[in-house]
């Protein structure tokens, strides 16, 4: 199964238009489409339409799509150069725009390759406990992804004390789905999970945007999400994620700004 099949993304007779039925399997437990699913669908549509690999994509989330609506994704390619394509995808339900994704795609021959980022030292996935706060009785995209807590205070046991460094880490995998730019787009949308553990509180956090930068696509059973919260102020949070293979190769980086609300 590829990421398009996982999401339910469908091609149309127009190679620049794709459709994504909004079903529970791509929604949050709150009953609206998961932002990472929208970005992943846009990435899959952009890669297929341009016939090039993603370099970066940034999504601005504008509104909510709820079942049983259908999101139309329209791809526009203003520039297609020798090696790089600049493109965008707009997801909308009828006349209501849900998200806008701007992206660059391509591959350039270049001999040098180097990584300066360093993966955190954590226990292997199967030695880490499952994430404790998932309600599996409600179908959602989260119930289709496996999570194990490598570092952080996930779950209900939070005493209000702030993290000293704002960092947490999750091992994640989407069973039977190979690693791709689209699957990394879904996983990268767990940046908001780091806000509550950094503040030591149970919170509602929603994404305003999501930027994904692809370093390389390598196959790995588990992906390590190295979450780094930068700041929370005036009701908004800002943070980032590095995504690693099990062997410590950097796959991608992601960043978000988020709205923070108390659960009550």
Give the arrangement of secondary structure elements:
Elements: H1 3-7, E1 10-11, E2 17-21, H2 35-50, E3 54-61, E4 70-80, E5 84-93, E6 96-106, E7 146-151, E8 167-173, H3 181-188, H4 193-199, E9 203-207, E10 209-214, E11 223-233, E12 236-244, E13 250-262
Antiparallel strand pairs: 1-2, 2-4, 3-6, 3-10, 4-5, 5-6, 7-8, 8-11, 9-13, 10-13, 11-12, 12-13
Helix pairs in contact: 2-3
Question: Overview of this structure, please?
Answer:
- The chain is mainly beta.
- The protein folds into 2 domains: 3-106, Beta Barrel (Porin), CATH 2.40.160.210; 125-262, Porin, CATH 2.40.160.210.
- 14% of the residues lie in helices and 39% in strands.
- It has 4 helices and 13 strands.
- The protein has helices spanning 3-7, 35-50, 181-188, 193-199; strands at residues 10-11, 17-21, 54-61, 70-80, 84-93, 96-106, 146-151, 167-173, 203-207, 209-214, 223-233, 236-244, 250-262.
- Strands 1, 2, 3, 4, 5, 6, 7, 8, 9, 10, 11, 12 and 13 form a 13-stranded antiparallel beta sheet that branches.
- β4 (70-80) and β5 form a beta hairpin.
- α2 (35-50) runs antiparallel to α3 (181-188).
- The protein is globular.
Q: Got a strand count?
A: 13
User: Mean pLDDT score, rounded?
Assistant: 95
CATH topology-level name of the largest domain: Porin
Query: In the CATH classification, which architecture of the largest domain applies?
Result: Beta Barrel
Please state roughly what percent of the residues sit in beta strands, choosing from under 5%, 5-15%, 15-25%, 25-35%, 35-45% or over 45%: 35-45%
Query: Percent of residues in helical segments?
Result: 10-25%
N/C terminus separation = 40 Å
CATH superfamily of the largest domain: Acyl-CoA thioesterase, double hotdog domain
The string of secondary-structure elements, in order, is HEEHEEEEEEHHEEEEE
Major pleated sheet: 13 strands, antiparallel
Overall morphology: globular
């Amino acid at each position: 199964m590829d990421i398009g099949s996982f999401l339910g993304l469908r091609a149309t007779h127009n190679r620049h238009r794709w459709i994504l039925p909004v079903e529970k399997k791509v929604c949050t437990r709150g009953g609206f489409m998961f932002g990472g699913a929208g970005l992943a669908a846009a990435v899959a549509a952009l890669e297929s339409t341009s016939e090039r690999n993603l370099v970066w994509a940034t999504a601005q989330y504008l509104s909510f799509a709820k079942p049983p609506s259908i999101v139309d994704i329209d791809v526009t390619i203003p520039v297609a150069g020798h090696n790089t394509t600049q493109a965008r995808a707009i997801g909308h339900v009828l006349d209501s725009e849900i998200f806008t994704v701007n992206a660059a795609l391509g591959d350039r021959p270049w001999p040098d390759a180097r990584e300066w980022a360093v993966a955190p030292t954590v226990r292997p996935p199967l030695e880490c406990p499952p994430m404790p706060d998932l309600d599996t009785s409600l179908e959602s995209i989260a119930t289709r992804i496996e999570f194990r807590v490598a570092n952080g205070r996930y779950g209900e046991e939070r005493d209000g004390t702030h993290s000293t460094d704002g960092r947490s880490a999750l091992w994640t995998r989407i069973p039977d789905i190979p690693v791709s730019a689209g699957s990394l787009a879904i996983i990268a949308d767990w940046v908001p999970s780091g806000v509550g553990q950094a503040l030591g509180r149970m919170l509602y956090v929603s994404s305003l945007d999501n930027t994904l930068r692809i370093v390389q696509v390598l196959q790995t059973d588990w992906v390590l999400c190295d979450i780094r919260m930068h700041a929370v102020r005036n009701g908004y949070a800002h943070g980032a994620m590095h995504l690693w293979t099990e062997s410590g190769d950097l796959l991608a980086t992601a960043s978000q700004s988020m709205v923070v609300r108390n659960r009550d």
